[in-house]
UniProtKB/TrEMBL annotation:
The name this protein goes by in its record: GTP cyclohydrolase II
A GO BP entry: riboflavin biosynthetic process
Keywords: GTP-binding, Hydrolase, Nucleotide-binding, Riboflavin biosynthesis
Pathways involved: Cofactor biosynthesis; riboflavin biosynthesis
Source organism (scientific name): Starmerella bacillaris
UniProt keyword GTP-binding present: yes
Signal peptide: none
Record-annotated GTP cyclohydrolase II domain positions: 109-320
């Protein structure tokens, strides 16, 4: 029997909460090099143990499939797969917009003095779509969670202060959570909208000093700018590895060392190029009373996703995140991060231009 010329990569979602199942053709496909390669349909399953509740959809208008040079050596291969044959339908892979926003509530918050002398208020959020603790890192004392401050049945003033539902600061002997202050302070019309960053967890870049990505630098730079303004929010989503989890992310790193780029590696592991969703971020921002924000991002799809299907959030300004080394402001350089950033621009549609 003759071998088919293409192996379709199909993205399927089997989210039991919405009974949503969709097969999207040509998110990517692989041309086999040898007859030993299984040419049956490869399924990219987003319904795994990483609490992913999203689908990947194609943009309304997509260019013809493009051949992607996975490495300088076009003949490189992984287990008989010619990486130069791995293709994607379009430069950007867009996450599905949630039909309804997730329900979120702030479980607790606490004041965190930081090593740079600034103070933040760390908020822990629960939700109805996964069992993860997502975070809001709030700079300044004028931004408050509605669900945190809402009264809870049977609680005492001490209970409220323990979970962080207080105004001002705690001190030994304090007995009243409702000290002087206003949960909804009047903001001057001349004051810019709150600076926000929607940041997905990256253990390797934030903790393991990885030079494969700029995630750690982006987190630090967002915190620096918000500290300067004394006002801002970083929504920290537990979406390690663009939603595939740390274990799978490490496999993707090994494939990258074998010649694949970050998009190709995910596809070869039968994952979407980007398995994240941002409905939780939208819901958290609304809970914090922030219907209008200035968003720090290079990803235009993130703007659309955070604004939500029903435009619950208005992004009034996109604040670019240019690597510090590109601005001659220090930072770090590596061959790996250069390739990573190039892939984001060329294959994921990020808005980032290096001034030479």
């Amino acid at each position: 029997m003759p071998q088919p010329t293409l192996t379709d990569v199909i993205v399927k979602s089997t989210n039991t909460n919405t009974n949503y199942r969709q097969s999207i053709q040509c998110v990517g496909y692989i041309e086999p090099m040898a007859s030993s390669i299984d040419t049956s349909t490869i399924e990219v399953n987003t319904n795994n143990n990483n609490d992913m509740h999203m689908s990947i959809v194609s943009p309304p208008i997509s260019p013809a499939p493009e051949r992607v040079d996975a490495s300088e050596d076009s003949t490189s291969s992984i287990e008989g797969i010619d990486l130069s044959q791995v293709r994607v339908e379009s430069a950007a892979v867009r996450a599905r917009l949630d039909e309804e926003l997730p329900q979120v509530f702030c479980e607790s918050r606490a004041r965190i003095p930081t090593t740079n002398g600034q103070e933040i208020f760390l908020h822990v959020y629960r939700n109805n779509v996964d069992n993860k603790e997502h975070l809001a890192i709030v700079f300044g004392d004028s931004i408050h969670s509605k669900t945190l401050f809402a009264p809870r049945e049977g609680e005492t003033e001490y209970d409220r202060m323990t979970r962080g539902a207080y105004i001002g600061k705690l001190y030994p002997g304090r007995t009243d959570s409702s000290a002087k202050g206003d949960l909804n302070p009047v903001v001057s019309n001349d004051e810019p909208d709150v600076l926000c960053r929607i940041h997905s967890e990256c253990y390797t870049g934030e903790t393991a000093w990885s030079a494969r990505c700029d995630c750690g630098e982006q987190l630090d730079e967002a915190a620096r700018l918000m500290s300067q303004a004394k006002r801002g929010v970083i929504v920290y989503l537990r979406q390690e590895g663009r939603g595939i989890g740390l274990g799978e992310k490490l496999k993707a790193y090994n494939l990258q060392d074998l010649g694949a780029d970050t998009v190709t590696a995910n596809l070869m592991l039968r994952h979407p190029a980007d398995a994240r969703t941002f409905g939780l971020a939208t819901a958290i921002l609304l809970d914090l009373g922030l219907p209008k924000i200035r968003l720090m991002t290079n990803n235009p799809d993130k703007i659309v996703a955070v604004e939500g299907k029903n435009k619950e959030i208005k992004v009034t300004e996109r604040v670019p995140m240019v690597p510090l080394s590109w601005q001659n402001k220090g930072g770090f350089q590596s061959a790996e991060v250069d390739k990573y950033l190039a892939t984001k621009v060329e294959r994921m549609g990020h808005l980032l231009q290096r001034n030479m």
